[in-house]
Write a structure and sequence with these properties.
Length: 148
């Protein structure tokens, strides 16, 4: 592995599933996904176990008990669990564009970090995005987004 993606999540299996599908359809494929789970319940674990069998990349699930908001603590545990020296941080509700990891790979440089943004969609559009929309990249098309 050359890159590690650290994905934060908390009791949002529907959104995490979309993110995991997005990472399974990256143009660059030499990475692992570390899920930094701030105490989610069984449905999140079930999605992670399902996707461990469905995706091309390894998934490491780092979890701790839900004792309130401890995102920074679980992020530190996820960093320790990573197996590379290049870390990409994202949230469990941000579907990656198919070139997301390729961009990180191409732009990485020792002693520097990359910072990016996201486009926050209205909830009705976010809910309308299907696995097929992610795989076909429709959900990244401005015309598709405007039509929804």
């Amino acid at each position: 592995m050359t890159l590690s993606v650290i994905v934060t999540t908390y009791n949002s299996p529907e959104w995490l599933e979309k993110v995991l599908v997005g990472f399974n359809h990256q143009s660059y494929r030499d990475f692992e996904v570390i899920i930094a789970d701030d105490g989610s319940s069984k449905p999140t674990k079930d999605i992670i176990e399902l996707y461990k069998k469905k995706v091309h990349y390894p998934i490491v699930h780092v979890w701790h008990e839900d004792l309130g908001f401890r995102k920074c603590t679980i992020l530190n545990k996820a960093i320790i669990a990573s197996s590379t020296n290049y870390l990409v941080f994202t949230d469990g509700d941000c579907i990656p564009h198919y070139e997301f990891m390729q961009t990180h790979y191409d732009k990485r440089e020792k002693g520097y970090f990359l910072s990016g943004g996201y486009f926050k969609l209205p909830m009705n559009i976010s809910k309308a995005i299907t696995t097929e929309d992610i795989i076909t990249e429709r959900c990244f098309n401005v015309l598709w987004l405007k039509s929804h």
